């Protein structure tokens, strides 16, 4: 299996190596023509900025400049890669020398010319990208100035007569414009042949179908599929919320689109009405989206499917406000489109914006009054409860919302109508976007953590097929959820900036494009593609190390004459070397050369020398233990006062199992720098030593035979080396014996010694032999003039001497 895997890997490497050769056969792109077209496009954009532009024109020019900037940056990156390949080839060819092959000389000359051309093209591409960025900044400054004038331009206050007098003066002409605008549509309808009105009727029928039966059927089918096929309650709940948003947005939008398309096919729409109706279609879609998002968040009629932590009372009372908010959001877009299409006077537009701003303020105030009443009712119900929760955060949010409403009202009263409407719109947009992002984040977390979970089908396939641990699968699901939620949050911030001129999304996409091209860090280009490639390479490397270790531990090491400790040493060293090579391979694929890795390791060695001395010492000591093997797995050793069996040796510490089944973790440096008693290093045998004394009148030969018989009757005692019993000394009328025997292991010595002592006590008592310990002498020192105490009798039979 390993051979097959290595052959496949070799084939892939050969295929990858052949890609540059194949690429060389493809004609190189004409960078000069590409840069010429980019320069011409920038010239046209620069010339257009000299004329009077609308907001849509600025957006188009900005998009064109961004496209030129992106293309020039890509071209510069490609040219940099070509330059690196040419430099590498020139380095291989080396400097010119006399008598060299003409083909090598011609190739060097051609490469030198290409290097000069590519260098000039690279500089030009970078210069064009800078010019494009300058144009983009200029367009953004113009948009910012226009937005600033729109927000902070002051007009007559609605509380002053000047405001109403301006409306009255412009009213007749505005009514005339409205009449002409409506008359154009009426004339178009009258001129349309009724025989061709069937597309309009068909569009109306499709709209009714989409709003009624199709919408209800989609909701029922989706809920049934979720109940029957979704993997878990969390996923079902999130999918139901997203499904409600999808159906609630598409059904009204498609119905309006069908109705408008049918009317256009029937010739019932005047040309002056087309732009306005397109904007109305956008207004309907946004209003439907707002209502669907807030409805999916509140889930008034389906509390069991609710994701947000809100009560049924809150969902019931605030659902009507969501309809009003959605209607206001659609009305703002629709009325702006109508004012633009009709060409109403500035006074009427300001009056319209004032009404919309006042409606937003009243909506905010009404929702806050409702929230205040609910809090008062909740406080009354919780009065007297010791564990009543404190709603400090909710109170702060309520105070902030009141301040927003107050600022909008003061701005409206002071004549800053645009700013007042903007504050109301931002409050509504923040609420809708926040609810949508909350649901998407919850759904992302539910799906990621449910799909990549050890108990799921995919998790079981990963654990069985790739040998991954269940915890690894769970961790990947949580990590994937975190990454996706961060990306969603970034997109949400870009979308939140839409009211500030509509450039938030394009700015975010531009930044993402720059990030995708890579960031220069210390001469190394770091890009998402390079990071992903390095991660894949690291995963392949670790998989190869895992397969090699499985073959090494399962096939090769058992075929050797090494014991368990030797196999463990070889396995540990091979594993760490393989992991180090996989990491180096991944860094190399990231673009970090071996020389940079060596520089990094040399820099790290300084920090290791100062801050990680103990860890480094233990690591080196572990390598010494694995290489010299003064201590092996299974040895019985004594470290200080602790004695036990060596269970595991790693590069940092050694685990010792004590007699009470606890584990002692000893740093490897302690085993190298201090004294350690290894009872099984030189020989696996264990020795029993028994010391005792008998009276001088006892038969020494009989005592010796009794000891040898006791050794012979103990099964644990070995015949080779043979047991022995020696007379060690004769002291104070007693004979001291020192007896030895050997067992298979030091671990068996304690029990065997106990059995032998028990038999000796029994036999000596039966033979009438007094058995004592080795005699000891006690000397009493007396001072001159002190009485001499009586001499005590030694329990072992001797007499103390003063």
Automatic annotation (TrEMBL):
- Record-annotated membrane-spanning stretches: 197-218, 239-260, 280-299, 320-338, 350-371, 399-422, 428-448, 476-498, 518-545, 572-592
| Residue stretches making up the Mechanosensitive ion channel MscS C-terminal domain | 689-771
Q: What protein does this entry describe? A: Mechanosensitive ion channel protein
| Family assignment from sequence similarity | Belongs to the MscS (TC 1.A.23) family.
Gene3D superfamilies the record matches = 1.10.287.1260, 2.30.30.60, 3.30.70.100
Domain (Mechanosensitive ion channel MscS): give its ranges: 615-678
Under SUPFAM superfamilies, the record lists: Mechanosensitive channel protein MscS (YggB), C-terminal domain, Mechanosensitive channel protein MscS (YggB), transmembrane region, Sm-like ribonucleoproteins
- What Pfam families would the database entry show? DUF3772, MS_channel_2nd, MS_channel_3rd
Domain DUF3772 intervals: 123-183
Q: Which organism is it from?
A: Sphingomonas hankookensis
State the InterPro entries in the record. DUF3772, LSM_dom_sf, MS_channel_C, MscS-like_channel, MscS_beta-dom_sf, MscS_channel_2nd, MscS_channel_C_sf, MscS_channel_TM-2
Topology class, membrane? Multi-pass membrane protein
Subcellular location, record wording:
Cell membrane
Q: Which UniProt keywords apply?
A: Cell membrane, Membrane, Signal, Transmembrane, Transmembrane helix
Signal peptide residue numbers? 1-23
